[in-house]
Write a structure and sequence with these properties.
The chain has 97 residues and is mainly alpha-helical. The protein has a domain of 66 residues: Eukaryotic RPB6 RNA polymerase subunit. The chain has three helices and two strands; from the N terminus they run αααββ. Strands 1-2 form a two-stranded antiparallel ribbon. A hairpin with a 6-residue loop joins strand 1 and strand 2. The longest helix is centred in the middle third of the chain and has 16 residues. The protein is extended.
């Protein structure tokens, strides 16, 4: 008797690869920015998008806001040890508000 294969789906990989996210250069940055925005929503910040009252999950709202480019954030600047130049760790500098 054949055992049916269980289909597993990694939803996050679908989200992370779904088009270009403004200012997001890696899935790790996406996790950090969306996580910080989720905390803001948990502490009472108003969503920046229209939400469905029946399906209001802070994580989903935060991811959608990041995807639409509505969550500004700052990329930390790395200082050279010898007092030389400052450079962003990646692309453009933005700040989470």
């Amino acid at each position: 008797m054949a055992v049916p294969h269980k289909v597993t789906r990694n939803d996050f990989s679908d989200v992370a690869n779904e088009g270009v996210w403004p200012g997001i250069d890696s899935r790790f940055r996406l996790i950090i920015v969306a996580g910080l925005r989720t905390k803001q929503l948990l502490h009472g910040s108003k969503p920046r998008i229209e939400t469905d009252p029946l399906r209001r999950r802070n994580t989903t709202i935060a991811l959608e806001e990041v995807k639409r480019g509505l969550v500004p954030f700052t990329v930390p600047v790395m200082k050279d040890n010898d007092g030389g130049f400052d450079r962003p760790l990646s692309g453009k500098s933005q700040s989470i508000a």
